[in-house]
Design a protein that fits this description.
The complex is a heterodimer of chains A (about 450) and B (about 180). With about 450 residues, chain A is of the alpha/beta class. Chain A has helices at about 25-30, 35-40, 45-55, 65-70, 95-105, 105-120, 135-150, 180-185, 215-230, 230-235, 265-275, 310-315, 330-345, 350-370, 375-390, 395-410, 410-415, 430-440; strands at about 85-90, 125-130, 165-170, 210-215, 245-250, 255-260, 265, 285-290, 295-300, 305, 320-325. In chain A, strand 2, helix 7 (about 135-150) and strand 3 form a beta-alpha-beta unit. Chain B folds into two domains: about 5-60, Orthogonal Bundle (Arc Repressor Mutant, subunit A); about 75-150, Glutaredoxin, CATH 3.40.30. The radius of gyration of chain B is 20 Å and the shape is flat. Classes of the chains: A alpha/beta (about 450), B alpha+beta (about 180). The interface between A and B is large, with 66 and 49 residues.
Chain lengths: ~450, ~180
């Protein structure tokens, strides 16, 4: 069980039932549970979509696309069944928020899937949870069973004459499956190789049927929007960036934790006030603002607001909400290497620029970190990364390239400090080699 | 081959959730692995048959997912995260400490078959780093001392089971001696 934190600046929307025992369906009902879906049952599909559109809710998985807009792309008429798919394959390094949602408020996700289903005209939904989250799968499976037992799922839900089914599905370890087309492949019992688009999942998705795929946090936000209204939700954040965000604060801060803050909250305040600053008398070196795939920001670049548009303007991405803080004793070359090892490990090998690019970058970074860096490799890393951008089926190639470009550009001097056989300035002699021998 | 009743009930419930049988494959493989310890030739043949797939198709899927394995592992699969959030809070030290203590490297299994050590990618415990999983249990905010306590607990659990098996064996011996006598 992951521990909860709190801060006075938090705006509790998605987290408001956390720690209140809402995994129990009766307790959930006492806490306004299943009211939102009943409200949605009394609305027509377009009205639901408009409400979500007007709320300014954008995809919490990382891309930040308008949820209402995504739902509106699903054709009204379809010969094949339509589906709602909840993406709970949370695996972007730095991200641990969906875990808390599943642990504390699984019925909110169920309700979100149901409302999404009503909006797009689907009669069933799947909740995909990564394999490592076994205890959360157990919680979710029970929540689904309880909802069926109350008659909230299945035939004639809430006496509306409409049917809706929700099924749990589990993964078995794969970052790439968090990408929506790979997620569908995995659900269909295959390797998580991405699909070519178009057609987009909204038109041709699971088993060929139109499919709406949303992150768990996105779907857990939906019932609150239905109850509180689009206007209320939109006003929590700046224009076009409605609501709150579960920020997963990690790394070198005094008080790491998952904090629900309004969209557009200051990154500086998040680190120094909410997170309690950098411990051990050290100073800030860099921040990865939205999970490992987002370009880092230097200590001079943190005076920004954490909403999709402001972070994009600062040259990075709000991503999945994983804010990883690095103090002045962290080696950027080593950090870049660990990031690249991850992407190399997770690349499925389907697209050559990603398969080869991540491997070459990993090898180059290993050489750098163990003191064998060559000057021209600094530019080579940049060149390699830039040539991966936009040249792959799924965003994994970009996810590997974008942070690397930023590390090299913003911390060139640290790479130069590793040249000509010089040992890593941040690590005790021999540790890098020892770790390399042990590491995958 | 025989799986537990729990597995069979789960399998029977899960397959009709999908329009195609093979859709149940990934979670089914993981549940089968949990029971058998690894995905043996026998398990692969059995599941391929049940889901109308070739064994090759099943192996193809297995090789994609990092949690699935066709090789036996230790009773306790110790998965230490060294990804970015854990890295900056000492994840590597935890991994090195475990490697020294257990005398094995990445994906190595101790000779007694108790522990397998694995360096893993992000397990979603970033705000409680450094973290590790023993089988499915999370252990967070780790220090080397805390890790030692986790490993000691595993050992105690294994020894307790061994004692139980031994006492059952000795009981069986006594009974058989008696019936012979």
């Amino acid at each position: 069980m992951a521990s909860l934190v709190s801060h006075p600046d938090e705006v509790k929307v998605v987290t408001r039932r956390f720690g209140l025992g809402a995994t129990n369906i009766d307790r959930y009902l006492e806490l306004d549970g299943y009211k939102a879906v009943q409200k949605a049952l009394g609305m027509d599909a377009d009205a639901i979509i408009n409400e979500v559109k007007n709320s300014g809710l954008r995809g919490r998985g990382g891309a930040g696309f308008s949820t209402g807009m995504k739902w509106s792309f699903v054709p009204k008429q379809s010969a094949k069944p339509k589906y709602v798919l909840c993406n709970g394959d949370e695996s972007e390094p730095g991200t641990c928020k969906d875990r808390l949602i599943f642990e504390h408020d699984p019925h909110a996700v169920i309700e979100g899937v149901m409302i999404g289903g009503l909006a797009v005209g689907a009669r069933s939904g799947y909740i995909y949870i990564r394999g490592e989250y076994r205890y959360l799968s157990i919680i979710m499976q029970k929540a689904i069973r309880d909802a069926y037992a109350k008659g909230f799922l299945g035939k004639n839900i809430f006496g509306s004459g409409r049917d809706f089914d929700i099924y749990w599905h589990g993964g078995a370890g794969a970052y790439e499956v968090g990408e929506e087309s790979a997620l569908m492949e995995s659900l269909e019992g295959k390797r998580g190789i991405p699909r070519i688009r178009p057609p987009f999942p909204a038109v041709v998705g699971l088993w060929g049927g139109p499919t709406v795929i949303n992150n768990a946090e996105t779907l857990a936000s939906v019932p609150h929007i239905m109850l509180g209204g689009a206007e209320w939700y939109a006003k929590i954040g700046p224009p076009k960036n409605g609501g709150t965000r579960l920020f997963c604060l990690s790394g070198n801060v005094a008080k790491p934790g998952v904090y629900e803050l309004p969209m557009g909250y200051s990154l500086k305040k998040m680190i120094y006030e909410v997170g309690g600053g950098i411990p051990n008398g050290r100073s800030l070196k860099a921040v990865v603002p939205g999970g490992s795939s987002t370009p880092c920001l230097t200590a001079d670049e943190i005076d920004i607001n954490m909403d999709f548009d402001s972070v994009a303007k600062a040259g990075s991405m709000l991503g999945s909400g994983g804010v990883v803080v690095l103090d002045d004793q962290q080696c950027i070359v080593k950090f870049a290497l660990r990031t690249m090892k991850f992407y190399q490990h997770e690349s499925c090998g389907w697209c050559i620029p990603c398969r080869e690019g991540t491997d070459w970058l990993k090898k180059t970074l290993i050489r750098f970190h163990s003191g064998g860096g060559v000057k021209k490799d600094i530019d080579n890393m940049q060149y390699l990364s830039e040539n991966m951008l936009g040249r792959t089926f799924c965003p994994l190639g970009d996810a590997a390239a974008m942070p690397t470009i930023a590390f090299v550009k913003k911390f060139r001097k640290e790479f130069e400090d590793h040249l000509d056989g010089r040992p890593c300035p941040y690590e005790k002699a021999g540790v890098a080699e020892e770790m390399e021998a042990l590491s995958h | 081959m025989k799986f537990s009743e729990e597995f069979e009930a789960r399998f029977a419930e899960m397959v009709p959730h999908y329009p195609t049988k093979r859709s149940a494959l990934v979670p089914t493989l993981l549940y089968a692995q949990d029971e058998v310890g690894f995905l043996s030739d026998e398990v692969i043949a059995e599941l391929a048959g049940r889901l109308d797939l070739t064994e090759l198709e099943v192996r193809n899927v297995i090789s994609y997912y990092s949690m699935l394995t066709t090789k036996p592992r230790g009773k306790f699969n110790l998965q230490v995260c060294t990804n970015i959030s854990c890295l900056v809070r000492g994840g590597e030290e935890i991994l090195q400490h475990c490697a020294k203590k257990l005398g094995v490297g990445h994906k190595g299994t101790t000779p007694d078959g108790l522990f397998t050590l694995e360096e893993v990618e992000c397990i979603g415990a970033c705000s409680w780093a450094p973290a590790a999983q023993v089988n499915y249990d999370f252990h967070e905010n780790l220090t080397t001392e805390k890790m030692d306590r986790v490993l000691d607990k595993c050992l105690a659990q294994a020894q307790e089971q061994l004692q139980r098996i031994k006492s059952v064996d000795s009981l069986a011996d006594t009974l058989s001696q008696r019936s012979e006598g």
